[in-house]
């Protein structure tokens, strides 16, 4: 059967409007792969785009979490077969930039002058067309296509491209050790994955901070030992009480606000690490006292979602091993042609939504 | 000859007044050593104490940079001999706290409930009597006394207890690699040592930022490849120009101001590290753009001066090897009974002063 | 009630003979603590001592895994109370040697010339009297006594002093990452703890190699995803098959033989790490092919059991959190006055023994 | 001027014979670059190939250290210009394999099943035609071509592709810290670069072991503090004497023999690291005593030469900064048509040869 020449895609029109439109199916360059999307999802970042808080070009297809089937391979692409089930990370490193060759794949400048560009690895739905469509063109395919192991469903691997990778990175960049006490501030999709990642890294006292009942329940289910409702108690005082005044080894920020950032710093033990995942919209303040005037041997580390096919392989391994099950995070399901409704629900966090599955 | 029972000591009286007074020579506890000071110095932190910006108890002997001779050993102390030349670090870890056993020696809570206390390892001239006196009592002597190698003068090792250890820590915590480009903001004693440390760690483009001519000259002498005068050019623009738009791998903050902190962040490459050494007096602001909204894979790390006898041994090795020579930083010399004059000069940074040597 | 002056202790007499004898209860020095043993155990190392394969002085009390109650504190010891339930690690760092101040606590030379001594932190039942007795004297008590959390039984924490610390160190030194494939060779007490540690660090495919049915079953229960019986299949071929030819990220050696060491190296991926825990009795051979002539970016790392009160605190946290339950490893229980029988059983690995609990 | 279709190349014919022959100038694939060699050199590995000790296919062009000018770029290659002066590393990572995306660029399996292959990144003169020719085809050009900074001569950068990268890796993998004592066994080209690298990383006592007078002199010139002639004194006893019985923090093996490997292990402090660079031809033995039965917290790490354009950029930075000058290592110069003579001299280490420069 001939491949269609036109497809449906959710495109950004202007602040407040992401609409489903017709677009040509993209041409496949020599190092690309064309993937037919079987499942994708909407991310909090897409909502920032929708609201005009994160600017992208009008006409761009949004979305950066593709699960699908290889439809066509570029003529230089070896090691894959058309028809193979694959995912690609939200971040698509080229592999060949100075950043990549230095291990900094997310900040990939591709062929730019210095090989470094802030957030440069994030291309889908940012600088090139994204995943909320019938088809997606994956650039530098040999660095980015990761075959899905037999037996794993689309929904089982749907979190791998972004939130699982990001949340786990919060635990990894924090360098959590066996026996650590860790606080995770906010239990949205990213925070929940950070909680799961903290457990997977050997933290033995994990304190989740949240206030939405469904998210508090999910936090316990996914790995939190203790849950603090920040509307019922001052979370800093409560965490200091729970740790008997010691503070935490690592605090993970998973929301992007001054309050959560500041709480993180305030519950850190001397020598502790604040691992920041949030996307901030304003300047941040570091309070002098919590920072011990700069003498507390504190670390503040930030992480952009790690991508590339090896990262995806490892995350799918985690799923396949049964160590972590994130399928309960898919609370709603829509067809691609219902995506505007899905955005409406997700952007307003109605009906206890965590993540939606979108199927073309 | 019998040891005297009284001695001279520079004590903090009230904000604005550090005076030389008579004090009893301290009693030697079982794990202590009494050291007769032969040379010591004044630190920027002592000036904060003088001005009342950092509170200590009235009557405390100030100073935390001792070079001297063992006068008397506590009855449990083995492995040393009276008459031996030694130094001790500004930070005196006990060795036995949870912090120490976890490798966090500077944040040592000694026998407190959790074994962790912010800045707890800093005892001299902070929580116990310090080094600007005829004698100093070194606690947990077996963890802190470091014999001075034959052939090294007092002035050669005078920077080891604090500024050399602190400055080098800026380079070490920044995890500088061979071939890195590093900017060091401010070339006071700590910043100069950070410059020397950056060179010792293999940085190959070191950009020092300063405006005082003597300090700019000293920066070049000690390891800077390029010097930027921040009064003649915007240091951020200048560093971006010098690095051809790439930014630096590591930026070291060695002053303790919002401006230098912010400049550091602004010149960092994506994935770069801000290594902070300054003692801040106010809340800090992280500018959103320089922080790439939290997605730049940036790290911010802080370091309190590492102490303990092994650190001192290593630093004296550096001096002994001839790799680094800091003696030119001793610009003025005073007797202990002139210390009030020395404070006056040092606190006002008059006469091109970098460090003063004080000899009882 | 007055403390007795004499006690029972299992002492090494000569190769082949460890016997229970009367010994004076030790004097308590200023930095020591006297602990009344409530539970202890026998380690494989004790069997090496029994057989004369590891030489210790005649008359020494053996054993290095103490669980007990503080009977008496030395006069300088602060932060503890008599009557408190505590454990101490098999390795007792002083805290004050150069090794300790450098973070190398196990290789602690105490007050020796260089502060470094191979295995120097291992004192109990090696260079000073050990734990298989009514009482044990803990040196450098403030660095070594770790209070047992309320609610944990003696048997729950009995593995912390040695095998849990050692086994976990195999996973930690191997720097296991989330998503790693790990092989653990031999599932005796140490190997089982390495398996548990690998899981706790985020390995998602753990292959245990064993042949004793009880140990194979225990390996699965404690964390192994796959178990290879090395008597039924060549373990190298089998692991390469199970990993689809890729090899493992980390191989943990937990027996101390040439064959297991060599198997480890042979199943490593290029760039992989061999983490060695075994106590070897002979020179080892590195096969050229498995070592890729020295060009495979392989690492071989060795670990002596980490000790000290912070390590013990963390391990008891792991138990307290319910992440790992090692109580099933206590397969046999004896009174101290039956210890010769216990040795006979344990040394000959009869009756499916894993670990014995000894209670004075 | 039209590019010629034929060129001269040094090809492997059979053990004992590398001869200069005519070969077609290679076709340029879409991701390749054709580089006209202006200077290259001969490596110890090439001698192994010549002698038949390392097997390659008959007809292969040998050599893996190219300095030249871009003659022609493949149609997908962006960010470079024809006529630009460049180097490429001996190891040419693709950037897109699982190994590369995991930071293990040298063990790159390219598009193979697992993306991992021992030594897979080493292609020039091993699996594809090499640098001892008029032209070389650089695969995955965007990952591998590194522009030479203005002002650096061919001979200044000639060591970057292999021996400087390898020697420095010995210091880097050994994780040398400021103040370390380091021994480097053998001061051939690789060992000399390891000595330079150890100094650049902050080692302050560097002990070089050699016996050839020219090499001993060069070692001192390049960074060694002490030189031990292993024919005049037992190097183990001598190093223990020089370190006052303490041993070294890091020992670097740069020859590839059992004796040097064993000496390294024997001079290590407990907790020290053996960093191995040698290419071994036989199984190795780890002596039990030097290994402390596997309980000394020792590490043995191996490194294959790191490659890729970012590594090359950094190494040329080192040269450009004046920190290290390796031009004195070029002791002899030949034209490409004299290469058989050059091999004869180099293979027999006649006339004090360190490295030869070959110019087509």
Task: Give a written overview of the molecule.
The structure is a homotetramer of 360-residue chains. The first copy, chain A, is an alpha/beta fold. Chain A has 2 domains: 6-89 and 124-159 and 326-359, Alpha-Beta Complex (Quinone Oxidoreductase, Chain A, domain 1); 167-302, NAD(P)-binding Rossmann-like Domain (Rossmann fold, 3-Layer(aba) Sandwich), CATH 3.40.50.720. Helices cover 26% and strands 24% of the residues of chain A. Chain A contains 11 helices and 16 strands. Chain A has a 6-stranded parallel beta sheet, with helices on both faces. The first copy, chain A, has a 5-stranded antiparallel beta sheet with strand order 6-3-4-5-7. In chain A, 62% of the residues are buried. Chains in contact: A-B, A-C, A-D, B-C, B-D, C-D. The interface between B and D is medium-sized, with 23 and 23 residues.
CATH level 4 superfamily of the largest domain in chain A = Medium-chain alcohol dehydrogenases, catalytic domain
Element-level helix/strand string of chain A: EEEHEEHEHEHHEHEHEHEHEEEHEHE
**How many beta strands in the DSSP annotation of chain A?**
16
Class based on secondary structure composition and strand pairing of chain A: alpha/beta
Please tell me the CATH architecture of the largest domain in chain A by its name. Alpha-Beta Complex
Largest contact between chains:
A-B, 47 and 47 residues
CATH fold group of the largest domain in chain A: Quinone Oxidoreductase, Chain A, domain 1
> Which geometry of chain A do the CA atoms define?
globular
Question: What is the mean predicted local confidence, pLDDT of chain A?
Answer: 97
Strand order of the largest sheet of chain A: 10-9-8-11-12-14
| Sheet with most strands of chain A | 6 strands, parallel
Number of domains of chain A: 2
**Strand fraction band of chain A?**
15-25%
* Radius of gyration of CA atoms of chain A, rounded to a whole number: 20 Å
Sequence stretches where pLDDT stays below 50 over 5 or more residues of chain A: none
Q: How widely separated are the two ends of chain A?
A: 18 Å
Helix content of chain A: 25-40%
The number of helical runs of chain A is 11
